[in-house]
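Bit of a strange request maybe. I'm writing a small parser for structure token strings and I need a real example to test against, not something I typed by hand. Could someone generate the tokens for this chain?
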Amino acid sequence: MNNQKNSEITLVVDLDGTLIQHDMLFESFWSVASKNPFLAFRLILGLRYGVSYFKERLAQSYTFDPAKLSYNQLVLEKIKEWRKKNARAVLASASSDRIVTAIARYLGLFDEVHASDQTRNLKGKLKASFLEERYGAQNFDYIGNSLSDIPVWEQARQAIIYNPGLLLRKKTAKLYPEAEYLVDSTAKFFRYIKALRPTHWLKNSLIFLPAIIAIEVNGPIIYLQLFYAFIAFSLIASSGYLLNDLFDLESDRSHHRRKFRPIAAGEVPLVQAMILAMVLTMSAFILAFFSGNIGFLIVLITYFILSTTYSLYFKNKLLVDVFFLGTLYTLRILAGAATAELTLTVWLLAFSFFIFLSLATIKRLSELVDNIARNKEALRRPYQANDIPILKIISLVSGYIAILVLALHIATEPFQQAYPKAFIVWAACPIILYWVTRLVFLADRGQIEGDPFVFAIRDNLSYAMLVTLILLHIAAKYL
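Reply from user aminoacidic:
Good idea to test on real output. This should exercise your parser:
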């Protein structure tokens, strides 16, 4: 490093992945896709005219609030420290000029802004030559975070590197031994685990239900196959959660609880979330394919298509959303039956659909009550305050119909033959009746946050009732 004073040097800051956690190209794309997927598809076709054209057209369709973006505090502190020395700071990015200018105006930390336009993609060597021409070689310090920034650091006085990956750190350590590193030391691995929502994998235990209640199951090998199916379904479900978080990026940031999700909080980069979703999806399909069970593979593909279209479109449609959720839960049971090669009775299908419709409606009820309590409109949801009584009725009636179906099933001759002490199972009806009714009460009081399944995982009384139901099943079948 030469002996020039900082006041004579310009600090140039990259935007994507450096000043902010995410890449504004992907940020703007997912925002547009969540509001108008057909427009997003048409914009993708614009790539045939070049990346610069695509970025500009995307920026024209993108509206955002810079205050809600995830900024890297280490970089902000570095810029503010620099400005205290009366030194100039510049924001230079490959993102669209419309977007970069809005962010710079919001922060109020930069003297100049340079960005891509419809004919120029300010990245890599092009950015390096531009900055050299404007400020002079070795006359600016540069903060970046990617391999494409190496040509820029070659022209800079000081390389300042934010959160480098292993490959970037290895390369820059040789090229720039005096480089300054801004490193976020918080653990990253658990951010990715959290983004997969492993607690929601318990929903996939429904795959085991058909085999558990079946009259005859062909040996323990079935449960090993069901375990593989459980893994495949968990992978595809986590892929769906990642896609859902990408579509809901903006609305999640405005939510008091969902804003802490790793993607919304900027802890998991969008491009990595996209890659992870693709890897999980392909892994699930490969696992299902090599299981040799075509029925399970078909159910898995159906689940993926329905969950994706739900996140993309049907989540915001009145009542259609809860019917979709009920169907997605029921598909887990169909997956278990397909894996174990069991024929599902109309009783089980009817019970599962109505009980899951009840739970889906309770989920919407809890969200609506929570938003009203916080004086906020339901984010991207078609329900209003006046709908609360109707949602309570739907959830109660659906749950009670499920219990009625169970009661009628217990009275059938095949069930009586399969369970020597079938009368014991009658006790399950009031237990489930109480559980559903209690959930509706708690949701109406604002004591359930989000998914009732997740609530049940943390609820001791729900655990006790589940254990009781299992004991009733064992007693009725094996005593």
